[in-house]
Write a structure and sequence with these properties.
By secondary structure, the protein is mainly β. 11% of the residues lie in helices and 31% in strands. The strands form 11 sheets. The chain has a 4-stranded mixed β-sheet with strand order 4-11-10-7, with no helix packed on it. The protein is elongated. It starts with a strand and ends in a 6-residue tail after the last helix. It is found in: Cell membrane. One of its GO terms (cellular component) is catenin complex. It holds the Pfam family CADH_Y-type_LIR. GO terms for molecular function: beta-catenin binding; cadherin binding; calcium ion binding.
């Protein structure tokens, strides 16, 4: 505070002075922990003195005095196992450390420690206190090796099966489940040098699944004795040794199944010349049954023989020819014929295997060459053009070219008119020997010989059209016709035949038109009243006699007003006029009808029309209100048929052929 001294008048009498008031602290605040719950962890098996965690409390009192000096201590520990003092706390810093050995997660996983903070330097008599909870979790270390639940396991597997679980290996590990300290890894130490098996770990149960990854053969190994070992993903903690129970034995029995016979050499290739006779033994294509411990028989049959050239012995697999093998056949691909055979045993169930036999056919000279081309044309005068000829042979080298082209000596006209000039081993030229040859088509025989051993020859015919040519050596149009073998006389005869045929067709058309005109004229001459053929005579008159001519036509006319109709006695009306009454409502067709509504629309319209009295026709029945007072004519019932026979109908014969039928019916009564 600043104090001022003044007199009664307010005058300053002394200099101002400062007065200092010191507030002395009293212990009126308890220590307060930053958190009410502290979480820490420590590995199991930790040595004494291992740091765990730190707790902190603050006191609002003066920290330079005892009022603000906080000290810590552990009040309780739960559980008190294996000792009631497993932890200690630094009284000044609040650091919690282990004080005893024996932390084991498998026994105690968590400790709850109550920590007290007291001021007045921890004097419980004068100081103020507060508490907090420290939760200490004991973390797992791999201090427990996995151990098999039994020392031996067994399983069974069929031969030739893969991805089959043979046995399940169960282990026990007391470490924390689904952690690297608990997850098991299995290894096969011995008993499987060929690698037929592997052990996979089930991620849920931690079991080891012995699985076949490479097919086993009963005939090679009937059983396997495996030694397996289990370990964890994480290495064992320092000082922990593997248990004797971390190894076990697995016995796997292999069961025999019926295996299919197989051909040791598949595909089997043999070489032979084509054309071997039927019944020739080619080879023995036998199969092996791997089931050595089963007494089974193997039978053979054909599975694929495209040309049906082969037979196989069902017992020993000997293959013979059923037809002549032809290298030039369409069934041959690159000189190789391929057939597939089936070998089947009599096991339960039966099994079969296939084998392919490839026959390489060596070519022989069995095809004579063919001349090419088959047709050609040449000018009737030499030195204008020639015909290049060659040959085609279905065989292959050396049974093909070079070819020899020759003209036969018979008939003699061939060598007289034609000559062949050799160009090379495959080509030659055919030309005229004489100065002029009449236009036409000539069959020129040529002998073609190949170079096979022995050589084959073939006499081929080439059709040569000899024709007049222009200066360029091309056949003219007239020359082409002449070369086709038609002379001038033949051409004229053909033209005459065509003219005659056209004349006959024209005459036939004129005759048909004239006949149609006559039929039409004849029909016009016939009186339609006299023509009774297939005619229906329609009569429109119903005269009622002479007195019926006096009738009132106004009764039959449409009245201009409807009063007399409305006032007419009920039951008497004219049905040829439109009735008066309420008209029914016809259904209205929708603008866009649904296909299913068409039938309903038609049925509703039909129902409305049936019930509509105003709908036409009105004149289906004519009822006349006035028919006259009588008739002087007699009743038509008096026109009875007479059977006396006194009527003479001979005059019907004079009426012409149209009444002949009627005259025969009535005029011939007396003769009958």
């Amino acid at each position: 505070l600043r104090a001022h001294a003044v007199d009664m008048n307010g005058n300053k009498v002394e200099n101002p002075i400062d007065l200092y008031i010191y507030v002395i602290d009293m212990n009126d605040n308890r220590p307060e922990f930053i958190n009410q719950v502290y979480n820490g962890s420590v590995d199991e098996g930790s040595k004494p003195g291992t740091y765990v965690m730190t707790v902190t409390a603050n006191d609002a009192d003066d920290s330079t005095t005892a009022n603000g000096m906080v000290r810590y201590r552990i009040v309780t520990q739960t559980p008190q196992s294996p000792s009631q003092n497993m932890f200690t706390i630094n009284s000044e810093t609040g650091d919690i450390v282990t004080v005893a050995a024996g932390l084991d997660r498998e026994k105690v996983q968590q400790y709850i420690v109550i920590v007290q903070a007291t001021d007045m330097e921890g004097n419980l008599n004068y100081g103020l206190s507060n508490t907090a909870t420290a939760i200490i979790t004991v973390t797992d270390v791999n201090d427990n090796p996995p151990e098999f639940t039994t020392s031996t396991y067994s399983g069974e597997v069929p031969e030739n099966r893969v991805e089959v679980v043979v046995a399940n290996l169960t282990v026990m590990d007391r470490d924390q489940p689904h952690s690297p300290n608990w997850n098991a890894i299995y290894r096969i130490i011995s008993g499987d040098p060929s690698g037929h098996f592997t052990i996979r770990t089930d991620p849920v149960t931690n079991e080891g699944m012995v699985t076949v990854v490479k097919a086993v053969d009963y005939e090679m190994n009937r059983a396997f004795m495996l030694t397996v070992m289990v370990s964890n993903q994480a290495p064992l903690a320092s000082g922990i040794q593997m248990s004797f129970q971390s190894t076990a034995g697995v016995t796997i029995s292999v069961t025999d199944v019926n295996e299919a016979p197989y051909f040791p050499t598949n595909h089997k290739l043999i070489r032979l010349e084509e054309g071997v006779p039927t019944g020739t033994v080619l080879t023995t294509f036998s199969a092996v049954d791997p089931d050595r411990f089963m007494q089974q028989a193997v039978r053979y049959s054909k599975l694929s023989d495209p040309a049906n050239w082969l037979n196989i012995n069902a017992t020993n697999g000997q293959i013979t020819t059923a037809a002549v093998l032809d290298r030039e056949s369409d069934y041959i691909k690159n000189n190789v014929y391929e057939a597939t055979f089936l070998a089947s045993d009599n096991g339960i169930p039966p099994a079969s295997g296939t084998g392919t036999l490839q026959i390489y056919l060596i070519d022989i000279n069995d095809n004579a060459p063919e001349l090419l081309p088959k047709e050609a044309q040449i000018c009737e005068k030499p030195n204008l053009n020639v015909i290049n000829i060659t040959a085609a042979d279905a065989d292959i080298d050396p049974n093909v070219g070079p070819f020899v082209f020759e003209l036969p000596s018979v008939p003699s006209a061939v060598r007289k008119n034609w000559t062949i000039t050799r160009l090379n081993g495959d080509y030659a030229q055919l030309s005229l020997r004489i100065m002029y040859l009449e236009a036409g088509v000539y069959d020129v025989p040529i002998v073609v010989t190949d170079s096979g051993n022995p050589p084959l020859y073939n006499t081929c015919i080439i059709k040569v059209k000899v024709c007049p040519c222009d200066e360029n050596g091309d056949c003219t149009t007239i020359g082409a016709v002449a070369a086709a073998g038609l002379g001038t006389g033949a051409i004229i005869a053909i033209l005459i035949c065509i003219i005659i045929l056209l004349t006959m067709v024209l005459l036939f058309v004129v005759w048909m038109k004239r006949r149609e005109k006559e039929r039409h004229t004849k029909q016009l001459l016939i009186d339609p009243e006299d023509d009774v053929r297939d005619n229906i005579l329609k009569y429109d008159e119903e005269g009622g006699g002479e007195e019926d001519q006096d009738y009132d036509l106004s009764q039959l006319q449409q009245p201009e007003t409807m009063d007399h109709v409305l006032n007419k006695t009920p039951g008497v009306r004219r049905v040829d006029e439109r009735p008066i009454g309420a008209e029914p409502q016809y259904p209205i067709r929708p603008v866009i009808p649904h296909p299913g509504d068409i039938g309903d629309f038609i049925n509703e319209g039909l129902r409305a029309a049936d019930n509509d009295p105003t709908a036409p026709p009105y004149d289906s029945l004519l009822v006349f209100d006035y028919e006259g007072s009588g008739s002087t004519a007699g009743s038509v019932s008096s026109l009875n048929s007479s059977s006396s026979g006194d009527q003479d109908y001979d005059y019907l014969n004079d009426w012409g052929p149209r009444f002949k039928k009627l005259a025969d019916m009535y005029g011939g009564g007396e003769e009958d």
